[in-house]
Fold this protein.
Amino acid sequence: MSTRTVIISPAPTANGDLHLGHIAGPFLAADVHTRYARAQGREVLLGTGFQDTSTFVVTTAHRRGVAPAELVANSAAQIEATLHAMGIGVDGYTGDDDRFTKWVVDFIGRLHAAGRLEPRTMRFPYSERTGRFLVDGFASGNCPECLAEGCAGLCESCGNLVLAGDLIGVRSTVDPDDPVTPRDVDVLVLPVERYRDRLRAHFEAHAGGMRPHMAQAMARLLSRPLPDFPVTYPISWGIPVPFAEVAGQVVNPNAEPMAWSMHSSALAAESRGGTPAGEDELWLAGGGSEIVYFLGFDNIYPFAIAGPAMLLAFDGQYELPTRYLTNEFYELDHQKFSTSRGHVVWGRELAAEVPRDLIRFHLAATSPEHQRTSFSRDALARVTESRLVGPWNRIADRVNGWVGRGPLPVSARSRHAAALMSQRFAESYELAGFSLNRAAEAIADHLARLDRWPVTGADAGDFCFEVRALLRAAAPVLIDLAAVVLGENPGAEPAEVTTIAPVRLPPLAAAGAGR
């Protein structure tokens, strides 16, 4: 029986700020569930951070004409500020300090010492001009599995592992005209195929912990032999490994996820007053943790195949993650977010212009849970005005008319309605059926219902009570409105409320009115 939930939203690459595509996917969802679960009295830890070892840091820095270290420092601060601006209550925020680096080396080192990592000769594209191997973000081409255009490492379209040497039409990302040739080099790999049967059994036992697209992809990936997973890369950007047989190599950034997740959860526990004995304490088998990921579909291979295979390689020492709440891409005006083309809306900038409750509501309503969805400023203004701001402000005016005229009676019928309301929201917030879309729909539906209520003196108490019950249920999404009316810890409504003393409700400002 789990005594705590450890929630992880994979670290964004430190090559820029967070745009709405990041927020609408894993971060808002993780925050909403965490707030709900804590209101139910559960222990929940939420961790994320940033990753500076990705090769995309180097390619972005090159494109912008800045040093990679400068890009990392600026991006790390921007990411943390944007999470705060959007009300994402992260407990543990990882960085690139010595503690993390040493832990990654220790984690990989124990696999190496146990003989779980093996040398393999692998083929990589090589730039004769620069004398560098091209891996992950350094190499572009077409996925050998689904033919989609992209970089090496992970395919954003099908979720497959894409070894750089297998890219179709491979070329240098930094300089597409730079001739590249294949070259063999020895690296250390994890023979993931040895763990495929156990991975398949684990995910079959926890099939309810995946959304349909991931479940389909996992069934496909685990239905056939898995390729060796490179744990080290013959490049200089990353965390150096101390292994003589691959001297000068670094940890593959996509081999860091389990060590990073453990570190993130330890930081989260410490920030909430805990004192874990080690980076991995919350992940130990039998320790009472349920490990849950909120992540983009494109991240499933390192977090659900290679990472869990590493955990299995420790022979039962660790728990395996049991739930993966994936999301698809969130687009801007029906095109993919692109910082290089300036086709982007930054979360922090939008939060400075629009009340964040409106942003959170709209992102919840349009979150890409099962398919690509799109954001537009016009839709944000139009949808929040018709479904949130207008109805709430009319309801608040009516409640405010009864302030000072209580206590007002609350009927059994209204208490039952509030219970039904709470149940509907719980079905959207619980992990088994988690859905930001349905939570936003429930908010809009109940606001519309209350807005249509022909309140009289006889049922004013019921009306005020159900408005408060709705706000309590919507609190994980509408964090600022709930904090003003209910306080920072809304908790649960007492079971037998018979009267209510209405309190003044603040209006919501429209999109564009600022915070």
